[in-house]
Prior knowledge:
- The chain is an alpha/beta fold.
- It has a single domain, classed as 2-enoyl-CoA Hydratase, Chain A, domain 1 (Alpha-Beta Complex).
- Helices cover 51% and strands 14% of the residues.
- It has 12 helices and 9 strands.
- The chain has a 6-stranded mixed beta sheet with strand order 1-2-3-4-6-9, with helices on both faces. A 3-stranded mixed beta sheet has the order 5-7-8.
- α1 (29-43) packs parallel to α3 (75-91), α3 runs antiparallel to α11 and α6 (141-149) packs across α7.
- The chain starts with 7 loop residues before the first strand and ends with a helix.
Amino acid sequence: MSFHPEPELRGHTLVVTVSSHDGRPVLDRHAYASLAKTFHEAAVDDEVRVVVLRGLAGCFCLGGDFSEFLDAAKHQQLIAAVTDMFRMLATFPKPVLACVDGDAVGVGCTILFHCDMVIASRGSTFRVPFVDFGLVPDAATSILAPQKLGYAGAFRFFCLGDTLGVDDAKALGLVGEIVEGSAEEMALARARQLAKKPVAALLQTRGLLKGDTDVLCDRIDHEISLFQQALQDDATLKRLQRIARLAA
């Protein structure tokens, strides 16, 4: 049985929920594949002009599924699904907005760097504990984070692994707007604004601002290669097993 809300087209805005299909606020290989498929279809659907990413109630996303990190038999499918999804995000031609209500951790945070606007509610938090896990960042954030946060801000965020409150996240540039109450209503309002703009001019302007996405795709591949190597390291696996036990 699936507890995952299906993508919903509201006017010209596609609302997509970031979660596993069994109702957990994490991304497993099936969720990555589903997100990639959704973005592939939305890219060529003229009815979709803007995509809004949201999490489950009270939480945006807590990151990847640890059980798949620890199961070598799943690594090949996981890496393929992750790579496809990140590449699709990097090259997606239409505006992507995110509404964050709650925690955004790991890939639940790095996915935000591909969003054109991030709107967050009070109490939302942001953390990228990759280094603590013995891993490297993903989703081309080794390029995108210094661009958005500045080198010093990106270094502190990724290498210290500290949790950012919403005010600090806005001050750094990760969050664009803070709202009282639910962020989804504001994100949908911004999406409606964008959907009313002349389509060609909006997409061309966004493309110019984004620049060369081939560079991002190359970095995604390199990060994934390093990530895969780390998952074959005994010390890293033991660290992940210990963290998984503590989280259970």
